[in-house]
Specification:
Heat Shock Protein 90, 4-stranded mixed beta sheet, 6 strands
Amino acid sequence: MVAMVDDLFELSRIHAGQLVVEPQLVAVGDLVSEAIAAADPVARARSVSLGGEVSHGLRGAADPAGLTRVLADLIVKGIRHTPADGTVHVVAGPVEGGVELAVTNGADTGCRFVVRLPVAQPAAG
């Protein structure tokens, strides 16, 4: 219930033009691991295999809370729309100009949702 209320407040801030996004250098592997671990009970309950792979040391520029929310939402929706004994897989790797995260459910007949992050800029020193 708290998450729903938070989502409604965030939606209000978006519509009012008051949402502040603060990109930071994030370890993509950590965020993906946390999202998979959080969704694992849902996947097990639905007999869906859940996994992922992230390029070692991958970093991107993102708002950590926002990216966590997006990943969690895509993974859970993927699980809910995957039949028992199906698979939901998260892959993250470098692409030209940034980082690409893809959440796929099924194989040939499933869906694939992609999120791209800009290249992480080193902190000014």
